[in-house]
Amino acid sequence: MDALQVTTQEKNQLELNPELNGLPARVETIHLIGVCGTGMGALAGMLVNKGYRVTGSDADVYPPMSDFLAGLGIKAVQGYAEKNLSHRPDLVIVGNVVTRRNPEAAALKTLGLNYLSLPQALRLLFLEGKKPLVIAGTHGKTTTSALAGWLLDSAGLDPGFLIGGILANYGRNYNLSRGDWFVVEGDEYDTAFFDKVPKFIHYAPYVGVLTSVEFDHADIYPDFEAVKAAFRRLVRLIPAEGLLVAWGDDPLVRELAGASAGPVVFYGLGPDNDWRAVNLAAEGRRVRFDLLRSCRAAGRLVCPLPGTHNVLNTLAAVAALDRAGIGLDQIRAGLETFQGVRRRQEVRGVVNGVTVMDDFAHHPTAVRETLAAVRAAYPQARLIAVFEPRTNTSRRKIFQGDYAASFDGADLVLVREPPHPEKSPEDDRFSSAQLARDLQTRGLKAYSFPDTEELLSFLLDQARPGDVVLIMSNGGFDNLHDRLLAGLKN
């Protein structure tokens, strides 16, 4: 099958799943199953702001999401049941966490209700008539999306966005738009139990950004070839009049970018990139760099976040927004006022000289780059890395050896055993005790703990003024951050 045929086939998959009843001509009431998820909660806010009457249900309804929804006038029902659909909403949106065995989801066909996944709903209700800027990749997509959304807004272009992290400038992760552009964080995870394609396939990118491609999501991708195939599908969706912005320092990303039907520009640190950052200089939690465009000096910029990886995120956003006609002076002003993203090197507090920082890092590469960034921002501090292997991939032993090389930037490493080990096959479970032994072999001080309570007790005993405690997890880590800050006060 030639490239044109494949591209046409991929674009056809943007249409509604034929098993669905589709989008009705008139929609006034919308019900969300799994409403308390980060993306679903954001979608709920967008729907309310657009004038729809919204209801929702979830297995766990508790603050802060329950308070957020209540503030929107949405009563979130605790638990799933057919009776939650008794008001017969015009449309039901089904969250990614909902399985086909869910009693509420099972009732959809019985009741003859119209239903969609979140990505399908986003495309049909919010992306039509817009220029979607879809930012994808194994790493950096949340920060790059947040930067792009803020830079568009600060330049007066009034973008919409839906992002996987809370932007500090807004206190939320979504925005409705009157402008042409809509920024979407393009997740490669599957869409819904009835729609087993990567979420980003639905977003019809006009401009796409590909930040990186590594193996992840071992629960849905059998091997790295399947991961690469997913990103290749995304790249093929870029239209001829669009643009793909790709990280040119990675040969694999360059190879995948070759599948784009539209023009491609590369960004990175190396000399073969169209957009290049040179002369990096760390200044506390910021990094200044010179911008080269097509080998010509374009000016000096400041990356508002620490670390080389965040310079690359900034460079990706700058290159993508050139298509929106944003000038360098507007970019510079926007970067100066960007306040960051929650859970990305976020300082949660400083108590008695101990800085407690929160980060979403969980992949071995993300752990390594985050530690390097924090080390550069706090060169004189003792850096204590606290890690919870919580994702469906990090609970498995596929990265057992890779993690051992990810913590070299730390002075002390504390790792708890993966929560809910039963979610991984018994013969494929990650061992935090083994990681601690491997790190000790590399000359690092490292300890493992069976639970958060023992880890917290040890951490409170060890912490001293001048330390930076970097807590890395994609979950709540049993509220470790607040408990540590409270303990330090005592």
Strand order of the largest sheet: 8-7-9-6-12-13-14-15-16-17
What is Rg?
A: 23 Å
CATH superfamily of the largest domain: Mur-like, catalytic domain
The coarse silhouette is globular
Helix content: 25-40%
| Average pLDDT reading | 91
Structural class: alpha/beta
Head-to-tail CA distance between termini: 67 Å
Task: Explain this structure.
The chain is of the alpha/beta class and 490 residues long. The chain has three domains: 3-121, Rossmann fold (3-Layer(aba) Sandwich), CATH 3.40.50; 129-337, 3-Layer(aba) Sandwich (UDP-N-acetylmuramoyl-L-alanine:D-glutamate ligase), CATH 3.40.1190.10; 346-489, Protein-Tyrosine Phosphatase, Chain A, CATH 3.90.190.20. Helix content is 32%, strand content 26%. The protein has 15 helices and 23 strands. Strands 8-7-9-6-12-13-14-15-16-17 form a ten-stranded mixed sheet, sandwiched between helices. Strand 20, helix 12 and strand 21 form a beta-alpha-beta unit. Helix 6 packs across helix 9 (308-321) and helix 14 (452-462) runs parallel beside helix 15 (480-489).
Summarize the structure.
The protein is of the alpha/beta class. It contains 15 helices and 23 strands. Strand 10 and strand 11 form a beta hairpin.
